[in-house]
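Input record (Table S2, row 354):
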Amino acid sequence: MKKHNFSAGPCILPDEVLKKASDAIINFNNDNLSLIEISHRSKPFVNVIENARNLALELLGLENKGYDALFLQGGASSQFLMTAYNLLDKKAAYLNTGTWSSKAIKEASLFGDLVEVASSKKENFSYIPKKYEIPLDADYFHCTSNNTIYGTQMKSFPKTQVPLVCDMSSDIFSRQLNFSEFDLIYAGAQKNMGPAGTTLVVIKKNILGKVKRKIPSMLNYKTHIEKDSMFNTPSVFAVYVSMLTLEWLKKIGGISFIEKVNQKKSTLLYNEIDRNPLFSGIVNVEDRSHMNATFTIKNDSLAKKFDELWKEAGINGLNGHRSIGGYRASMYNALPLYSVQVLVDVMQELEKKA
Ligand SMILES: *Cc1c(COP(=O)(O)O)cnc(C)c1O
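Output record (pyridoxal-5'-phosphate complex):
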């Protein structure tokens, strides 16, 4: 039986997606060729990437609104610099809510003046700063919607005239937002959309063309928009599996449906973390992430027993990030509610045995 996969990334994917993906490796499209040995310019693959780009826009409610969806390479980490390369003329504003925000700030600072509007670093990123001002002359404001490592999530986004750029790597397609408030959204596929190897960039075309510097073709969003994400060979497998996952999401009811399931999962787990005297949550309650729940065991001497129990129950990937320790349960879209119940049962079993 498949493990209950709470891995923070690469993430769990739906069984039917894995099955279709493995079939396509042997025989794609009944053409007696593998998906990964055909030309990316062949009609069957062009259909895949077009379908993936259209599905992304459709699920986000961004069709016919001046947006383009791109499947690029280099991970979300390349977007830290690409956003700045393409958008930062003089000054940009950043909200620092964790490791990934900090990395985005470091990269962008190579391209212009950075204003860190607020940071929760002093409190080990255990909350999302709420009161801050975005300078009106900033070229854009950058934030991280979900802090995968610390387990905090932005529940609302600032209303500002400044273009909004967001790293949604670990919660894209997990909850309804007014996505048209954002001018650029990027997300590494491997958290909530597919395997590692491709990054979705959703971009409002009219924000481009405002910086004076010359931009190398590969790092220029315009290149990829003009070439329909086919300027160079795309990560065909990662794009295909992302397409299958987006098809799956559409079929089960889209973001509005999965959001309800995700709420059920996180409520089930957080209720247990708060009820069970052996555990405590790590971050500010109102900022808790519905995707990555972080918690600790109060009495260290019980950790070994707990680790044994969850491993016996077939759970995978529950260890916290090395920078904060404790536990982290990542409950991405494809994780069934049942898996969370298994974890809760293990926490209760430990309580009985302690
Ligand atoms: C994992 C992660 C990244 C880094 O993604 P890569 O694709 O490995 O570069 C960036 N931002 C967030 C929020 C993440 O969770």
